Amino acid sequence: MTGSQLLAAGARILTEAGIPDAGRDARRLLAHALGVTAGRLTLFLPDPVEDARASAFDALIHRRAAREPVSHLIGVRNFYGREFRVTKDVLDPRPETEILIEAALSAPFATVLDLGTGSGCILLTLLAERPAATGLGTDLSQAALDVAASNRTALALEPRAALAQGSWYEALGHAPRFDLIVSNPPYIALDEMPLLTPELTHEPRLALTDEADGLTAYRAIAAGVLRHLAPQGRLMVEIGPTQGAAVSALLRAQGLADIAVIADLDGRDRVVLGRLPGPQAAQSADFRTN
Q: Which pLDDT score is estimated for 198?
């Protein structure tokens, strides 16, 4: 079969399975199976495809029809103009999280802490955009940290990005205070889990839900912020669309000022931020990497 014939057959299978944007997904999977970039796929469509590659494409199509995310099938996801390795051990970087990136980049920072770093997409993007900054990412999952480490290497950020295992601030040890703390924690309430799209069942449950009301992580982040945020430092967290008021109240209760809620492009609350009042303190950038 030619590439065109395989592509048409794959798109048909995905359409029948109810996959949104079936044609787009089929193209990405065929490009992956052929070992070419998606942008050059058209050049190869008229040519016959060898049996091994055709079989690999067929297997990918049927896995996608079973609602396995494309990123897991091809192993990467684009985020803020860069390509990040992803696996079943980390959340997929999503366009909505770029709202947090834009907010963080709107003011200077020298040191950044990313709580629950996962793939490292937030921490590493911020450091790539700010070449003078250093940062630390923490995660409870060693498997997630391994993914983040591979992304750190791919972006040549080992000298400026440290990684540490532990729950929220517990991983910090004697790390200095940071002038920016960011997090995209698990915010889906337990009773919302059955409503998720099938693709999300392939992502780590630990990164999706707190098995409670969806606010457990924010309580922990808020409770430790005064010990780890520098004066005049900023805290920014991604939230679910109904959590703006509750998370704002948690930050306000810790004494943070200038509390704001930022909406995403669909008008849904997406990021809550606050600033710690006080005189600006000099920050150390000496992190021990692993």
A: 87
Judge: domain 76-275, CATH 3.40.50.150: yes
DSSP of 233-250: EEEEEE--TT-HHHHHHH
Give the span between the Cα atoms of 133 and 180, in whole angstroms.
Answer: 11
Residue whose tokens read 């016959």: 48
pLDDT at 287 over 60: no
Strand stretches in the chain, DSSP E: 76-79, 82-85, 111-115, 134-139, 161-165, 178-183, 229-238, 257-263, 269-275
204 contacts 88 by C-beta, under 8 angstroms: yes
Q: Are 170 and 142 in contact (CB under 8 A)?
A: no
- Report pLDDT digits (tens) over 139-174: 999 999 999 999 999 999 999 999 999 999 999 977
| Alpha-carbon 160 to chain mean position | 19
Mean pLDDT for the stretch of residues 95-113? 96
What residues have CB less than 8 Å from 141, skipping those under 6 apart? 89, 165, 204, 206, 207
In this predicted structure, the answer to whether residue 204 has a pLDDT above a threshold of 80 is yes
What Rg, from alpha-carbon coordinates, does the chain have? 21
**Residues 202/67, Cβ–Cβ less than 8 Å:** yes
Tell me the domain boundaries of the chain. 3-66, 76-275
Say whether pLDDT at 7 is over 90: yes
**Tokens describing residue 157:** 């950020």
What's the chain's length in residues? 290
